[in-house]
Write a structure and sequence with these properties.
By secondary structure, the chain is an alpha+beta fold. The protein has two domains: 121 residues, GMP Synthetase, Chain A, domain 3 (2-Layer Sandwich); 55 residues, no CATH class. The protein is built from six helices and five strands; from the N terminus they run H-E-E-H-H-E-H-E-E-H-H.
């Protein structure tokens, strides 16, 4: 599977170069799939779901990059608008799950996914870091009054700053817990 994943990384680069940024590119094996075939999910503001030319463009690139045997592993190619509810729910799932590159046995928007591989994620490390920092600020803001001498006001979340390692790890959570107590 690693070889196909690498080829889809190349496909994403080609599509991005020719059509603009790809928001999401993923391979999903659905629960009811009995033939080990993959749905290709792609979302870009310049690929239109109802436009047959957009679909032909993506399929032609896939056909140029993959072997015939690899193409037989594809069940379908589905284009989504970046603002589609399904893409939003995938983005939320990825954001909440620390942006996994691979996952299994997940239900998203009523769709049971047996296995999934994320080639291009709409969630960036900056986005994940921002959510973690916001969460820490909120926890501090709602948990303790301001301990600044002579002040009785609670600080606003924007005023709370804390050393942060760059990734929300167990150490950060333990540090935050100690800070709150």
């Amino acid at each position: 599977m690693d070889k196909i994943i690498d080829k889809f990384k190349s496909i994403e680069k080609i599509v991005s170069q020719k059509k603009g940024n790809v928001k999401l590119l993923a391979l999903f094996e659905l629960e009811d799939n009995i033939h080990d075939r993959w749905d290709v999910i792609i979302s870009s503001k310049n690929l239109f779901p109802e436009d047959i030319e957009s679909l032909k463009f993506v399929v032609n690139i896939i056909q140029r990059v993959l072997t015939k045997k690899e193409i037989l592993k594809i069940s379908k190619v589905v284009l989504f608008d970046p603002n589609d509810e399904f893409i939003t729910k995938i983005q939320k799932f990825l954001s909440n799950g620390k942006n996994p590159k691979e996952f299994s046995e997940v239900e998203i928007n009523g769709l049971m996914i047996k296995r999934g591989f994320v080639i291009k994620s709409p969630v960036t490390e900056d986005t994940t870091l921002k959510h973690a920092e916001d969460l820490i600020r909120y926890l501090i803001y709602t948990s303790k009054p301001n301990k600044i001498k002579g002040s009785i006001d609670t600080p606003s979340p924007e005023d709370v700053h804390l050393p942060f390692s760059g990734n929300l790890e167990k150490n950060d959570i333990e540090y935050t817990s100690k800070y709150l107590n």
